[in-house]
Amino acid sequence: SMYLEQPSMALERVRLELERVGNKVNAMVRDSFPTLLVGTRDRIDALVQRDNEVDSLTDAVTLYLRELSTRDLVGPQPERLQVYLGVTSYLENIADIIETGVAADSRKRLDKDLDFTEETEDYIKDIYKELYQAAQATVEALIEDDSEKARAVIDNKSRFNGLVEKARTNVYNRLKHEKGGGLAVYKIETS
Fold it and tell me: Helix (H, G, I), strand (E, B), or coil: what is residue 159?
């Protein structure tokens, strides 16, 4: 495949490709919040479609990097390769979380004809802001070609996953189910 005989060129191609994937993932995170609150079925399906797209791109990058790892790499190249593998799986992880979590929860909202209280909306919004910043930081590390920064972002992965879990548990499982104006209203339990 292209550039595999020239690892420095190959790694640069990967960085540019991951930047592109990162921007797609960022857009997914950005759009997931309104989709969760008011999205139609079409918008939910579009989000799932975008995850499939990200998955095929990250799969291709991973295969390419694995192939590249069998070549003669010098100096900082092996380390960069490891960082890019980490970034690839991180971006795929973010997209998957949105696809499994947000899409499922958005469908639940439609199926049960639910509305969110303002309090709940604010709470979710704060979490999404942090998710967006995490995705943004990944792309910035790639643009600046900063391995240290990229590694720090990846190390933050468990915190990122924890945030999503927090959003889903608090907002969905511990919600008090209230009837209001014929609609079930989601309310956070302050426990």
Answer: helix
Q: How far is the C-alpha of 58 from the C-alpha of 56, rounded, in Å? A: 6
Bridge-partner residues for 175, per DSSP?
none
> Residue for token digits 């014929």?
182
Helix (H, G, I), strand (E, B) or coil at 154: helix
Nearest to 48 by CA among 102, 105, 122, 116: 102
pLDDT of res. 172: 58
Residues of the chain with pLDDT under 50: 173-191
The whole model's pTM is what?
0.81
pLDDT at 183: 42
Sheet containing 114-116, strands listed edge to edge, beginning at the edge strand earlier in sequence = 114-116, 183-187, 176-180
Rounded distance between C-alpha atoms, residue 164 and residue 170, angstroms: 10
| Alpha-helix runs per DSSP H in 4-156 | 7-38, 41-68, 77-97, 103-111, 118-143, 147-155
Q: What is the pLDDT of residue 112?
A: 82
Please work out, in degrees rounded to the nearest 5, the angle formed at the alpha carbon of residue 176 by the alpha carbons of 175 and 182.
115
Res 1: pLDDT: 65
